[in-house]
Specification:
about 450 residues; alpha/beta; 19-stranded parallel beta sheet; seven-stranded mixed beta sheet; about 20% helix; elongated
């Protein structure tokens, strides 16, 4: 008979205020790769565990929203990690429970799986450990014959114990009923008057084996300050760069490219140096993103050319083989197949038809001070340089707008539109004005 699969629950402790962050945001809401730390951990944990419970502090509505659709419980009094875990006790279920920390957002699914496997190998409790380059601040794992006996904090450790390189990362996994029993036995007889989750390790060691699963420091190091947040960001960016290159993306200078956690890039895309991807970007195969470009909330079609020094803002879609050139900004724009906006242009709230060329210095005046209005340009249309298109306005297929025009009315298909003052000449006046200005300058 096949043994039934045990239910697994991940409990994420996220009630921390993040005092060392010097921020009004809950610590778990600080962002890595343009995504809150809590979201990173949830996205990974849901690959391994059947259920997720998040322990939050009082008055943290934004954190509760970030945890949805998973359940949250509130730790009204911050009385330590053991107390926080106990708040979720009624939601442990009957299988294995892992206690995770929101300020350890970079734990991989592979490491979580190893933690669960170690627990199911017969250990009463499994936990994560690391060998940091600077172990001073971490609690040490005291082992005997490959089994963990207890955790000793640095301030309480002897000189010999301080020489131990294996450190506690905080994360642990055990049977739900065992956790309930250990949590009920926790005391707070310490200087802080708090209930420490680490104390369950010694309890578990008395009743069975405690196994340590080691993982790299960069994966397990906590984020408690802005400096540690920056280090975690660097780790995450390196992961994403490597994943992009493994997926067939060329990064000319990988260390200068910054991704968001949800950036989607197909194979055979080339990304030049100093490119930034904000949230919600999708890049199709064969596109080139040239240097110093900034993309957010946009999609780029196959074979498109973006930049250098281009900015694509939310709502923008650049279709197949379209071109966006240097110092061009697009916001909420549909740029059609093969359409081009190559120089010094702002297009906002616009639809640009296939094969249309938008000349240098063109802008769409999309905002009247109260409302946004849309500009619609047809296919194979030519917009001359330094044109101003005052929305709402429509320009038909195969039309031509003369350079320097201000267009305030619709332009019919195939028409030539001129919206500029008539040029005239005053013979000799140019030289006379120059002489007059020179004489004025000489007179002081």
């Amino acid at each position: 008979m096949t043994k039934a699969k045990l239910h697994t629950t991940a409990v994420i402790l996220a009630a921390g205020l993040g005092t060392r962050m010097r921020s009004s945001l809950p610590k778990a809401m600080h962002r890595l790769g343009n995504r809150p730390m809590i979201t990173h951990l949830i996205e990974t944990a849901k690959q391994i565990f059947d259920d997720i419970v998040v322990v939050v502090g009082p008055d943290m509505p934004e954190l509760e929203r970030a945890a949805q659709p998973y359940r949250t419980v509130v730790q009204s009094e911050r009385l330590g990690t053991g107390h926080a875990a106990k708040m979720a006790e009624s939601l442990f279920g009957d299988g294995d429970v892992a206690i995770l920390y929101a300020d350890n957002p970079l734990i991989t699914a592979q490491t979580m799986h190893r933690l669960l496997d170690a627990r199911r190998s017969g250990a009463s409790l499994s936990l994560l450990g690391m060998r940091p380059s600077d172990p001073g601040k971490y609690g040490r794992l005291i082992e005997e014959n490959g089994h963990v006996l207890r955790i000793v904090e640095y301030k309480d450790a002897t000189e010999a114990e301080r020489e131990i390189g294996l450190c506690n990362a905080g994360v642990m996994c055990a049977d739900a009923n065992d956790f309930r029993r250990w949590l009920s036995e926790l005391g707070n007889n310490n200087a802080q008057g708090e209930y420490y989750l680490t104390d369950v390790v010694e309890m578990a060691a008395r009743s069975g084996q405690v196994l340590c699963v080691e993982a790299p420091e960069e994966e397990l190091a906590g984020v408690n300050s802005r400096a540690e947040l920056a280090r975690a960001e660097a780790t995450l960016q390196q992961r994403m760069r490597q994943a992009a290159m493994d997926g067939g993306v060329t990064l000319v200078a990988p260390e200068t490219v910054f991704f968001s956690a949800d950036t989607q890039i197909s194979q055979d895309v080339v990304i030049e140096p100093n490119v930034f991807f904000g949230p919600g970007v999708k890049i199709a195969s064969g596109s080139v993103i040239r240097a110093f470009s900034h993309l957010e909330g946009c999609t780029v079609g196959e074979g498109a050319m973006i930049g250098p020094y281009a900015r694509l803002r939310p709502g923008t879609h650049c279709a197949t083989n379209s071109h966006v050139g240097n110092f061009v900004e697009l916001k909420n724009v549909e740029l059609g197949t093969g359409a081009k906006a190559n120089h010094l242009t702002y297009l906002g709230d616009a639809s640009i038809g296939a094969g249309t060329n938008v000349g240098a210095g063109t802008i769409t005046c999309n905002y009247d001070g109260v409302f946004k209005h849309r500009t619609v340009i047809g296919e194979r249309t030519f917009i001359g340089s330094n044109s101003i298109l005052v929305a709402p306005v429509e320009i038909g297929d195969d039309a031509l707008v003369a350079a320097g025009s201000v267009i305030t009315e619709n332009v019919s298909a195939t028409a030539l539109a001129l919206g500029r003052a008539r040029q005239c000449e005053k013979p000799g006046r140019g030289l006379a004005i120059k002489h007059a200005l020179k004489a004025k300058k000489e007179q002081g």
